[in-house]
Amino acid sequence: MLTDDLKKQIQTAYSKFLTSRGLKARSGQKRMIAEVAKVIGNIPVDDKAQRLGENHVCVVEAGTGTGKTIGYLLAAIPVAKALKKKIILSTATVALQEQLLHKDLPEVLEHTELPMSFTLAKGRGRYLCINKVEQHLDSSASTGQIALYEDEQAMRLDPETESFYKHLLNEYASGRWDGDRDNLTEEIEDARWGPLTSDHLQCTNRRCTNFSACSFFKARRDLDQVECVIANHDIVLADLSLGGGAILPEPGEAIYIFDEGHHLAPKASNHFAFSLRIKSSSRWLNTLPKQHAQMLEQLGHPGVMSQYVEQTLRPGEDLKILLEQIHELVKPLMVNAENGRVLDRYRFAGGEVPEELRVMFKDAEHLAARLLTRHEMLLDLFREALDGEVGDIDKQLAEQWYPRLGLMVSRFQSITGLSKSFFRADDLKESPTARWVNMVESGTGQDFEFHSAPVSAAHMLQQHLWQSCFAAVVTSATLTALGRFDRVLDDLGLPADTPSHSLLSPFDHYNAAELYIPAMSAEASNPDAHTEEVCHFLNSELDSTAATLVLFTSWRQMRTVLASLDEKLNNSVLSQGDYSKNEILKRHRSRIDKGEGSIIFGLASFTEGVDLPGKYLTEVIITKLPFSVPDDPVDATMAEWIENKGGNAFMEWSVPMASVRLTQAAGRLLRTEQDTGRIVLLDRRVVSRRYGRQLLDALPPFRRTVG
User: Fold this and answer.
1) pLDDT at 146 exceeding the cut of 70
2) Which of 704, 606, 610, 697 minimizes the C-alpha distance to 659?
């Protein structure tokens, strides 16, 4: 139970923090501390401090300026220490991890005098793999890497890339760099960085000759020793999919805090998604016998390994032929029957796959599973060779081939997962899986890329996270939709009676900002006329000397508007797509610091993670209500499911999701209590449609002006 001693520790820590920082208590922050402590501090436990019962999750929406980081840390740290539990503090991005590591957490510990050790956890993909670099440099062509698709395979290293790889290795060997991509002084493109990293299937772990010098494992050694691990949602989901405790502390021994918790459900859905390019996979299967022959030749044709390889020949050939048949079967679906045009995408209505295709994918899953098993057996042989348990396989050659076999296993896992998803019918009691095919361009022409993704990860989160963790806190500035928690609780797979609290921001929204809805003759549902009117408004109203963020819902509208801007305004615009998001924000701040104006044109990614306080942002213009794209396969499948159950997909799904996104967009303006400015909404549907009032009322209480 939350003892008097624990309450006193929490109260004392908060008082110390406020006094040390010269701050006054905030009512929302005090309430957050109390509500989080009440849930995680009152969890019944047995004599081994294992959780009893299910009342162990708390959801808190804390408006901008509440100080939620302080709120959850001051409640969680004393409770975790008393129960001897670890804290897993998870954010949406690596950038937010860095902020917690270098600023927020040290600041809390310094000003509260609460003792807590902590470290950062990142995935393998953020760290240099010495073996990979050496393999690339040891070979004139990177035949050691088998990329996901043939057209993505790294070819012979050009002199510049070779020189760059040597530079990275030297920087790491000298100690000037720790192998963490985020600590590089120069930017490095994904295409250049990707070949130099590993994953759990390619990594030989302690068997690797470079294990003692490995940057990833150096970073990981601290995890078992510290009391708080700063992770991100992707790492948490990866750990849970491996059973929990494989990367991070055991779930049953941890209190999870999900900051930016509104990202957890969509990230979980993506984590359980599959994709597969058909022609590329068929061509890759065609190269397998040659790769196997090369492997056996280098290793001297060891008996058992030769047997395993021989057992892959027939199923590999059968799977290749089957994928080619699937390609031919899908061809007619990718053509519009009315006008003969080739479609960019075909979605299976309700996620239901035609019977003939289902049967083919059932056979594909069977063949891919056989191939997967054989390659896992080959991988086991290499592990044994690395441990010195197989005398007829050279240890050095085993170390070279291990990551290549790991990539093969990963590829067969993808084929197996996608195939299984396409032939298995959905559980009628659960939400469906969206299934669709995209037409994509590859290095060898057009290809069909099959996709499947659950429209909701609720069941997965329930099974893998909520049932196994000791306690959890989900928090964000935007969790409610239309002022209610129903949507987020549904998406996360949490019970309707989960303790959920919405804490108002301490900002004086009414006096600090105006929400202006100008008179417009065109409805946003008429895209061409609406775009024309947006162009007219921006050309007449935009101030090239101000600090403005203009948010669009489509590339098409943004490019059309950009092309129509007056030259003076155009010269002041920093547009998404021209530079990275960080570079745009950097250039924007620099312009404002010089006394110049700056206008940012951005899409959905600029509705979050944009922190431009004070003079850096005085106006936010939202061109259109952020409804989901009508042809998004996941949203469309969800809408069908809701309608089939007798619901109203627009009111139950589309409007609540738009409400969350609109609140996030409007939230870019006021970042501190001193900020002021104007939000302009160029979409009259908020005053002309019945749902408009709901959307407006879900926003903070800005003063409103309707033209």
Assistant:
1) no
2) 697
- What are 68-108's pLDDT values in tens digits? 999 999 999 999 999 999 999 999 987 788 889 999 999 99
- The region of weakest confidence among 214-223, 228-237, 364-373, 451-460 is 214-223
Both tokens assigned to 464 = 């893998």
Strands (E), 366-406: none
DSSP state of 620: E
| 349 φ, ψ (degrees, to nearest 5) | -55, 130
**Contact in structure between 234 and 438 (CB atoms under 8 Å):** no
**How buried is residue 113: exposed, middle or buried, by Cβ count under 10 Å (0-12/13-18/19+)?**
exposed
Residue 316's contacts (CB-CB under 8 Å, 6 or more residues apart) are: 285, 288, 289, 371
Report yes or no: 404 and 146 within 8 Å, Cβ to Cβ.
yes
DSSP labels, 413-480: HHHHHHHHHHHSPPPTTS--EEEEEEEEEETTEEEEEEEEEES--HHHHIIIIITT-SEEEEEES---
The pLDDT, as a whole number, for residue 140 is 40
pLDDT over 70 at 153, yes or no = no
pLDDT score of 362: 97
What span, in angstroms and rounded, lies between the C-alpha atoms of 83 and 304?
A: 51
What 3-state class would DSSP assign to 276? strand
Distance (Å, whole) CA 288 – CA 275: 20
pLDDT higher than threshold 50 for residue 497: yes
- Burial pattern 665-685, b for ≥16 Cβ within 10 A else e, equals bbbbbbbeeebebbbbbbbbb
Residue 143 has pLDDT above 60, yes or no: no
Phi, psi dihedral angles at 50 (to 5 degrees): -95, 140
DSSP annotation string for 124-181: GGGB--HHHHHHHHHSSB-TT---SSGGG---BPPHHHHHHHHHHHHHHHHTS--SBG
Instruction: Report phi then psi at 484, rounded to 5.
Output: -125, 155
Query: What DSSP designation does 183 have?
Result: G
Rounded Cα–Cα distance for residues 665 and 682 (Å): 13
For the cut 60, the answer to whether the pLDDT of residue 142 exceeds it is no
| Neighbour-count burial of 185, counting CB atoms closer than 10 A to its CB (0-12 exposed, 13-18 middle, 19+ buried) | exposed
Rounded to 10 deg, the angle between the 355-386 and 395-423 helix axes is 160
Question: Do the beta carbons of residue 366 and residue 359 sit within 8 Å?
Answer: no
Helix axes 303-330, 355-386, angle to 10 degrees: 160
Q: Rounded distance, CA 489 to CA 502, Å?
A: 13
User: How far is it, in rounded angstroms, from Cα 375 to Cα 404?
Assistant: 11
* Separation of alpha carbons 415 and 373, rounded Å: 13
Listed residue (527, 481, 521, 483) closest to 623, CA to CA: 527
DSSP assignment, residue 54? S
CA-wise closest residue to 120 among 135, 139, 98, 137: 98
Beta-carbon contacts of residue 342 (< 8 Å; ≥ 6 apart): 334, 335, 336, 439
Alpha-carbon span 248 to 268, nearest angstrom: 17
| Per-residue pLDDT, 612 | 95
Report the 3 state secondary structure along 543-589: CCCCEEEEECCCHHHHHHHHHHCCHHHHCCEEEECCECHHHHHHHHH
Task: Please state, in angstroms and rounded to a whole number, the distance separating the CA atoms of residues 211 and 587.
Answer: 41
Report pLDDT digits (tens) over 377-410: 999 988 888 887 766 788 888 888 888 899 999 9
Cα three-residue angle 247-251-257, rounded to 5 degrees: 95
Cα 87 to the chain's mean position, in Å?
21
pTM: 0.87
Distance from the first to the final alpha carbon of the chain: 56
